[in-house]
Amino acid sequence: QILISKITALSDLILPYRTLTMAIFFMRLYVLAFSASILAEALATGRKHLGSIVQLSTPLSPQRSQSDTDAQQPYRLTRRESILSIACITAVPLIILLPSPSTAANLPENTGADLSRTGSIETLIPIIKMQQSLLDAKKKLSQRHDGYSGIVSADECKIIMKSLFTAIPREEKAFKRMFDSYSTPVSYKQKFLDQNAFLVYYTKGFDGPDRPNIESGEDGSDSVQTMQYGARNEAWTAVDDLFVELEFNISNEEKQRIDDMSSREDLLILASEAIRAFDDYLRFAPGADVTEACSRIG
């Protein structure tokens, strides 16, 4: 009986939303069909009178009769055709202006990650390898070399980038996919809130009689997922900044613009920020798993 009452309450909430959504959908469909019919008739009318318009550009022959001359007078739109033309102009913007049900965009973009092994040591190892490659890059940047004073040469940058590419993808989606394969996946509740933002907003998060607001509080997994998602994005931003500066140095040296090259100190700061971003992400992984992953890497 309690289950039936909850289903009834939920259906009472969903019905207005579905009704409004369907009404907007059919209104769009009607306006689109109406516009298509108007456009088709307008094209047919234009094709019909195109010949007479073209004929007006040639002089009349003296041998032609008065009836031929009358037939070549400029074509004037009838009242009905004028109304149809105005309707055709206004109908298409109306389709665009019709409101759509509001939706949220708070969920992470799908990167194609395999979510069957999230939280496993096997999916944690690639992330540890990426951090270790950044530590190795920082070590290389800390070493002083002869030549340019205070900057990193193009040859050094190429060596560092080659080392980083063995563990870190350069493409953003591939980079984030490695994190998503380990991270806590999006929960059913988060998906429901995102896909039913209109319903949740106008019902003020009502989840049934004697139940807490659906938006009130977060369970542990939702909180971890949100923070991992943010840390993953911070890691990508920091790594991308480092790659951009390394590529910038290579390009500037090849163009002999030595004064525009980034300093060693600047690159060290970027490498440190990237390492810190990985530390922030790995804080959500169990310490024992991180230790085990490091031991497997060797």
How would you describe this protein?
The protein has helices spanning 2-55, 66-71, 79-97, 121-142, 154-165, 172-180, 188-195, 197-202, 220-254, 264-282, 287-297. The protein is mostly helical and 298 residues long. 17% of the residues are buried. Residues 6-17 and 53-58 have low confidence and may be disordered.
Task: From the structure above, extract its key features.
mainly alpha; 298 residues; flat
How are the elements arranged and paired?
Elements (H helix, E strand, L loop, with lengths): L1 H54 L10 H6 L7 H19 L23 H22 L11 H12 L6 H9 L7 H8 L1 H6 L17 H35 L9 H19 L4 H11 L1
Shape descriptor reads flat
Number of helices: 11
SSE pattern: HHHHHHHHHHH
Strand content: under 5%
What percentage of residues falls in helices of 4 or more residues?
55-70%
* Rg computed from alpha carbons, rounded to a whole number of angstroms: 33 Å
Q: Which regions are unreliable across 5 or more consecutive residues at pLDDT < 50?
A: 6-17, 53-58
**Total beta-strand segments:** 0
Distance between the ends? 59 Å
Sheet with the most strands?
none
Structural class designation: mainly alpha
Mean pLDDT: 74
Care to give the gist of this entry?
This protein is mostly helical and 298 residues long. The protein is 67% helix and 0% strand.
